[in-house]
Queue: 2 jobs
Job 1
Amino acid sequence: MNLQKREAKKEVFRLSSLPFFYGWIIVTVAGLTHFSSAPGQTYVVSIFLDSMIQELDWTRTLFSGMYTVGSLVAAAFMILVGKVLDKFGSRRTLVVLCILMGLACIWMSDVNTPWQLLFGFAALRAIGQGSFSLVASTMTAIWFVRKRGRATALASLGMATSMGIFPIVVHYLIGQFEWRDAWTILGISVWAILLIPSLLLVRRSPEYVGLVPDGEPDLINQVENYNQNNDITKNYESNYTLNEALQTRSLWMLTLSSISSPLIMTGLMFHHVSILGAKGISPAVAAATLGLFGPLMLVSGLIAGILVDRFPGRFLLAGGQILLIIAMLWVFIIDSPWKALVYVTISACAVGLVNTTGTVIWANYFGRAHIGSIKGFSTTTIVAFSAMGALPFGFIYDWTDSYNIALSALLLLPLTALVFTLMALPPGRKYKVRNHF
């Protein structure tokens, strides 16, 4: 035990003597985590579809159905992942998830039956879209309070970069080799990019290594107070457990407000070329405008990160819902490429604003100690409704032969979410507890 204490003290002194706050290293790893989530994201899976359909001789309906069901199965695991994250910390959780992501990609390289495809999609979505995002956002929230918005926005650079790079790389790999080898290479690349940083660089919390959030002066700065529970600071923080948070109106208002954006934007992006084609826009122009979505979302996310550190998050979330409503209404008047570009710009701004603010506001409202399980609850909702995004647009279009009717009917979602967002006041009762890190 004495050896353990001495080693812990050495690490405390080593990290506290750095010329910068160690939390920015955590932000870098969070960015790499977002970047490495690509195999579980729609923008990568969609690149594989045509090649897999051609070789396996399955219908597109089968693939779409398996993808939807797999995403819904993945959503059911998010609360469990959040609780594991709270119990074991970001480093252990992320290392295990990284290994599993690589194995899931390798599994996809050997798919030959529908049930294997379903299992592969469920694993990719549970880890890539859900768990990686949950761990990355939780790590950032734990290490920052006052600068949480800016840190979250910088970590999101990884996702925007991933959206710009991975589709091109995967398309090249499939062309040079074939889709099975491409999945294997993708899995190995995740290990190469993320495994070592997550193992060597991630720490549970600033308090765990003798620091405080944001790199502010330590409230105690007495390393000799270190004990076997790693309780080096004496500060108090307002925190909620998941059960306590579930008893607040704030949690339910935030949850209900988070339904709209993932469902609507997944549907709009999934049918992007078809929607613009119905407005007379060529597939080439539609694809080009979609390629701008990532960079535009990055810029709006960075701006949102600055704003959320200065203004109430619920007003920024409301602004994101208003932008989403404007984007949906703008579709009705698209008749030229420049109007298509405006549509993509508004949509990207809406997503960047909602995603960045939505990540920050949960920790702001409910504290850092149990943010993994609380965010796991919200991530379940986000993943589930994201999975169902393409279905209503496609169903209504097949039924009515018009995206205008689908857009008109689904406008109710962001309008309702706007009301819930404005009602999402900070929790009235605060639970004063000793920090749990």
Job 2
Amino acid sequence: MQEAVHAVEGFLYPNEVELQWSILIVLYPYITGLVAGAFILASLERVFKVEAVKPTYRLALLTALAFLLVAPLPLQLHLGHPERSLEMYLTPHKSSAMAMFGFVYLWYLMVVLLLEIWLDYRKDIVQLSQTTKGPVRLIYKALTLGSSNVSPGALNADDRIGYIITVIGIPSAFLLHGYVGFIFGSIKANPWWSTPLMPIVFLFSAMVSGIAAVMMLYIVTTWLRKKPLDMRCVDTIAKYLFYAFVIDFSLEMLDLIHRIYEADESFHTLDFMVHTRLFLSQVILQIILGTGVPLACLAATQLWTFSEPVRRKLYFTSGLLTLIGIFAMRWNVVIGGQLFSKSFLGYTSYKMEFAHREGLLAAVALMILPFLLLWGLVKLLPPWSEHEAKA
């Protein structure tokens, strides 16, 4: 408590000395953004017929599922009593955006993502249930859900239904992550958050982070499996990543220009925050390393011709820095929005514990968990094509 008091400058209300939202609330929009972005990338092949990205279609779906399963855990840890989350289903509160998330989450998980993955993998699951042995065969038997019909007519029906679900899933993905930006943007008492562009910025940054994550996973998994990298696929993903990044950057600059032009009573406070307490996370990590450098790398690959090894390194570097930059953006929004007083006269700081329920160790574990789940999903349902699997 004494350390927090020493970090205070000027006047703060008693409930503003210690931050109410920790790094776990930073992870929550970050993880849901990866889910939405990965699903949007998968929809490019299924709905918009971008055949070049087909090698990443199933990988993108499994990535979205792995991160979606972990998405509620930061909120559960922050809540302290996970059983209380059931109240949103038992006594729904229609006017609460946070409570409505529970229903959006169930819709997206049970109806959209799981059903699309099952329809896409149904033929493979039936075949594996007949060829594998041991306990794994029982898992595949259960996954068939009693449907072993793999005739051309049945598979064609699966494809048509899957297409419809993907079309429905696109606005559902927007709703899943856009509501997070809506929650922040609707808090009028905080000028850092209160902007109508917040949901849109969150949506496009989610697309950027999800596309970058799948691109990196595809590069890394192909290298680990010692398979040739489909550069046409990676080039196409990088192109769409560049387009989404340009739109996201433009929206953030539009918001910044509007704040500078409006220059209300909170402007000097926010300007002070950017130049002092958030200089490293916003100026260095988010703007320079997380936005400027990857945009420059991606733009270079669009303007000039490089050899395959050079393009691969530029894409991987761009993807890694993009993920760091989007995380820094989430940090600046969640943590940065709590570092100044509602009176604009005082400032505080955030000290992150290590071995704590809402500390660094828990955050690292939550970021590792989706990759472990993805590893298990890939082992159970390989996302590679039959031709590539036999190569």
